Amino acid sequence: MSMSILSGISTPQDIKSFSVAELEILAREIREFIIANVSETGGHLASSLGTVELTLALHYVFDTLHDKIVWDVGHQAYSHKILTGRKDRFSTLRQQGGIGPFISPEESPYDAFISGHAGNAVSAASGICEAMSTAKSHNRVIAVIGDGSLSNGLTFEGLNFVGMKQLNLIVVLNDNKMFISKHVGAIAEYLSRIMITKSVRDVREGIKSTLRNIPVYGEDIYKLAKRIEGNLKGVMTEGSLFEEMGYRYLGPIDGHRIDYLVETFENIASIEGPILLHVSTQKGYGYTPALKDPENFHGVGKFHLENGEVKGAGANRSYTDVFGETLLDLAKKDPRVVAVCAAMAFGTGLKKFAKAFPDRFFDVGIAESHAVTMAAGMAMYGMRPVVAVYSTFLQRSYDEIIHDVALQNTPVIFAIDRAGLVGADGPTHHGVFDIAFMRNIPNMTLMIPRDQAMLRKMLTYSLKIQGPSAIRYPRGSVVAMPLKTGRFRPGKAEVLKKGTKAVVFCVGPLCYTVLEAVGDIDDVAVVDLVCAKPLDTAVIRDMVQECHGRFAVVEDGCIQGGVGSAVLENLKDLQIPLRYQLLGIPDKFIEHGAVDRLRKDISLDVEGIGKVIRDII
Q: pLDDT per residue over 459-471, tens digit each?
């Protein structure tokens, strides 16, 4: 793979003297470079392939060390990383100690603001605009958002504020056909480009001034002309909504034509006030497998370069698979059951459900808060909604969980996927806070299955709970040989191993890690607490007393406020000395990397747990 131009690129300054033809060659080289590297590391391929030309044009026109690009999600930003000094380390993408999966100011001065959860770019960019204005800076701020972000409430809050304050913000709407209506034709594209040239702008301003100066009727004629202009632009460019919000709307522009993009950015760079540039791209552009199946190549593991087939795919069933299959079975028996997700039907295992029950499946887009409150409304009036959501994204709807679900004691079921450490996606995606923020909510039942059999039982039982409930389960493969279990009852722990020297309380699949860790340690009890709320307080107190106060708690959530904290709260008045250790996620953000390695670093592996137990006894 020859990289004649890319090999000489270290910073955006290196492309400033390039011709458009050279930029086009560089775009092809960057695309080949991304595909080759991601085939070995895995990553968010399709989105980044769609923004190569857009990224080049931004760095070509703007001084991106001082002008600030705020990326709505890092999914789009691999080209940005390559152009800003991280090309030589790109093979370390998503690996521990290597380049992060998303945008982070800690990684590069070219990364203006953290990304990871879609929807924050416009609000963050508005704050940067205000800071620059205060500092009398004339540098530009550009927010690059995906079309899916337009379903996110925070995006509209930011757009509204920017339009109201008339901030000097350029919003680039990257429309990859997943949300916005289709391109309306070459004429609209041509008009959008020529209508922002300086000569045309000068003519327009001159006409406005002339109309307004006509005696008596000038202002009325001007308003009529503005209304006609707005209506015509709305018909041809789909921009009426943004124009009404106070933006100068431009586009759609072909996002794979560097000449169009460069011309457009050069023309708008000096325009005052908020601008929304609508850019049309294709996810997976330049790589046929990703272009044909952008959903699977949104976030992909290692794959074979020649055909796009994922390496080692289909080897094991996941907890997500088990959830999806079980919910489908339950829905066949109970017509009240409906499924709700937030733009993650594939990731949460609901594809088969959506196909079988299209009228009972609701994908609300990137709008977790809406998903939760809508589910509360459903549950209040007879339906049994199951909200399937990644742990890290559930954080975005905390107020709605408390105010709209728990306060009214509505029977909404939360299926919390990707709980615990998730690996290569890093700190923005680790699901480590849900136990702490869910267990302190009144009326909530919080269940944590140790294996696939328990997950099925918990999901089935949750339909009987007359109030909110949540089931958290990890990313990855199910347990190879699950233990036999009896009837599931919330708040009833299960003793997996008896002993009197010490007791280890655990939750989730880590129960199996604990059993392995104490396998060669005599007389140590192991208890699966099953639920973080309600706790089996009787078993906890009895076992700790029997073990003379020696115990440990093992969980894959944050220690502060987690299951261990709940156990200590329960033992606060126990009249014996306590010797204990709490194992979980420490009070820091955990970097990206392989889950096994990350667990080893915080003593959540067999060796680390075993050492802690030996220290206690």
A: 999 999 999 999 9
Catalytic site residue from 283, 456, 533, 599: 283
Residue 580 is assigned to a structural domain of this protein: yes
In a domain, 213, yes or no: yes
ω into 449 cis (within 30 of 0) = no
- Burial class of residue 469 (count of CB atoms within 10 Å of its CB; 0-12, 13-18, 19+): buried
Judgement on whether residues 197 and 147 belong to the same structural domain of the protein: no
Distance CA 159, CA 153 (A): 10
Tell me, yes or no, if 283 is annotated catalytic: yes
Q: How many CB atoms lie within 10 A of CB 375?
A: 31
- Distance CA(306)–CA(5), nearest Å, equals 24
**Marked catalytic residue, from 189, 368, 400, 555:** 368
Please write the tens of the pLDDT for every residue from 415-449.
Answer: 999 999 999 999 999 999 999 999 999 999 999 99
Catalytic residue among 87, 140, 396, 550: 396
Q: 10 Å Cβ neighbour count for 496? A: 18
| Rounded-to-integer distance, Cα 163 and Cα 19, Å | 35
Give the CATH number for residue 426: 3.40.50.970
Strand, helix or coil at 165? helix
CA atoms within 13 A on the CB side of 368: 19
Alpha-carbon distances, residue 345 vs 28, 352, 384 (angstroms): 32, 9, 18
pLDDT, tens only, 214-267: 666 566 555 555 555 554 444 444 678 899 999 999 989 999 999 999 999 999
Q: List the domain range (segments joined by +) for residue 204.
A: 185-237
Please say whether the dihedral angle defined by the alpha carbons of residues 209, 213, 219 and 221, taken in this order, is positive or negative. Answer: negative
Q: Is 569 a catalytic residue?
A: no
DSSP-derived secondary structure letter, 403: I
